[in-house]
Structure formats: structure tokens, C-alpha cells
Predict the structure.
Amino acid sequence: MTKRLSTATDAVLVAIDMSKHRQEVLIERPEGGRRRRITVLATKSDYDRLVKDLASIGRPILVGFEATGNYHRTLAHQLLTAGFELRLISSVALARTREALHNSWDKNDPKDAQVILHMLRIGATQFYVDPLAAGINDLQELSKTHETISKAKTQTWHRILTHYLPLYFPEIARFAGNSRSDWFLALIERFPTPASITALGRDAFVTEAWPLVGRKVSKARLINDIYETACSSIALPIAEDAVAITMFRMIIAQARSLIQQRNRIEQIAQATLADHRDYQLLRKIPGIGPINALTILAEAGDLRRFSHHRQFLKFCGLDLATCQSGTFRGRTKLSKYGNARLRRTFWMAAQVAARQRDNSFRDKLGRYMAGNADDADRRRKAMTALTAKMARVAHAVVKTQTEYRPFLE
């Protein structure tokens, strides 16, 4: 059964200006436009009292609010559970409307509640999707925690490469390789300075380093190269038991811990989504790996709620916009008024797909760059087009529940 959507003419309008500790609530009945103002504290008793008061009205309730950090989530979920219809107010639209209505940039909570009520009345709202009710709360936490840990790992890795290694073992940086691998960090944690290597001698160093390096092609040659590098290093003459080296090892341990946490999150994500049909379909698209697929599902939810791919592109901020007035017409470019994490995810997926062979993304890039291989601006535009195509394909495979087929067009 489809739930009937209330309109501004037959529903009691409830505008809520959200904040951390208190909410300003403005209630307007349809007959006569009578208003009632309530201040609700962020406590269970006040939330329960608000829900009870709204339910006692006995009319359809339409609640509008502006997302404020994560402070709105608990009250919004309680209102949704109580059966009320929720609408989300765009922060940008709210600011523009407030300036237009009051001819001022002056801002306060009661005034914002009035503006939210006005936007509810004219229908300038968006549908609110509650992550917990939609079943994507766990996916969002996985995705956001993975991003937080990845950023912290990257910052720590750069700190090691740009601060500690140039001081205490400059030459070993050429063996660093991929930041995802743990063997290099394990090696420099055990041997943070050239002196810690040369003090053992070649044979003893090879014996200790062998299990740390892991499975490598030409492993013996690699370890011998590291030993020879240590013998001719220009590093500062710091003793291994110095406080500076203790700090160096502490940062290395932090980096290794972050790598382990990231790997653990990826394992949990894989186990959680292994039987998820949408996840499996997204993984078939070139360039979309486990984390990209997780991010798409976490940020967009059910892609089938977008009836057309243009709606999804607009949600991602991948729709085109042009500034035009009179005879002036500006450049057409991406609006970027949308989900930045989704936009970045599709951009990264397009970058990977363009480097792979035998797929429609690489073929599209080749057609776009034909005769202009050295034009950097054209390549940037081509990658933008590939990003939009990636979003369209992701929407299509989920909506139609069919696997990606290269060169379908």
C-alpha cells in the first residue's frame, strides 16, 4: 500500500530549527493559519512530550527541518517512528529564502523556524531519508570510519616519508613502495637507523629481516640492497635508544595500527555485503571496488528511489549548470550542489576504469581525446564526462538489476 503524501493545504505544518541542546518548534494549523511556538530541549521527556502533543492533534502532520550536523537524527527518527511525514530543508535554500523574506542576513533560531514554515507551505522541500529506517546506518558508519582511518593513515605515512626518514634513514625511502603494505613499516620499526642494521653484520641482518619482508620476488637481493644502502647512508648519527628514535617508532606503530584497522573494516564490509545484490552488481562495473561500492550504497541508499538517472546525477552534483543573463552566457560546468563523497567516489572509479582495458569507459576516453592527446584541459573534461557516465551506469545496473555489459551502446 502506498502511503498518501500530505500537502501543505490539509496538513498541520511543523517547522523545527534544530540545534545541539534545544529545538525551536513552530506549529501552524491549516485553518486560519494559527501558530503555536514551543521550545523543546534535547531530552527524552521533551521529545516524548512533543510526539504526544503532535499525535493528539488528530490531523496529518508535516514536519520540516534543516539538517544540523547529526543533532537532528535522534528527533527525526522518533518523529518518523511515530508516523509523521518528514521533509528536509536545504541549508542553501534556507539562507537565500531568509535573506529574501527579511531583506537581511540577520539570523536567529525563531526567525529560522518561520522561514522553514514558509518553505514547507510553498513546497520548497526535499524528502528525508532516515539511515536507520532505510537500513543503511551500518553501511554509513563503515564507510565514514574507513574514510577517517584512511585519512589518518595517509597523514601518518606522509609524516614518516617527509620528516622521519629524511633525518634518520633517507635512502631507505626508495624501498617504501605501496602504502598499503605493512612489511616496510615492520622493517623500519625493527631497524629505524642505518646503524641498527650495520651493527648486526650482513648475515645476522638477513636472518632477522627475512621474515619481516614477507613474500617478495628476489627477496635475497632486496635485503642485500637494503644492507648496502645502510652502509652508505648519510643519516644523522642518532643512537637507537635515543628519545627521537622512540618517537619515530611510536609513529610507525601508529601507522601499522591504522593499516590493521582499515583492513579489518574492509573485511567487515565484505562480510556484511557479500550477499547484497546491489553490491554485487556495482562490483561488476570497471573501477568500482569493494570500498567504492560500499560508499555508493552508504551515501545514496537505494538507487531505485531515483526514477531517472538525471535525478541521481543531480543528487551527486554531477548535473550541468550555466550562468546566463541577457546576452551574457557563462561556461557550462558541474553544479557541484550535491553529495561530494559520491562525486569523489565516481571520479576515482572513472580514473581506474580509464586505465583498464576493454571497457566502454576507456573507449569513451579514447574517442574524446582523439587528436588532442596532449590537451590537459580536454582530458579533464573527458574525465568529468566519464565520471557522469560511471554514475549513470551505477544507477542503471541497480535499477534494472542487470550486470554491466561493456560496449552495450
Q: What stands out?
A: Residues 1-6 have pLDDT under 50 and may be disordered. The chain has 17 helices and ten strands. The CA atoms of residues 351 and 383 lie 7 Å apart. The first strand starts at residue 12 and ends at 17.
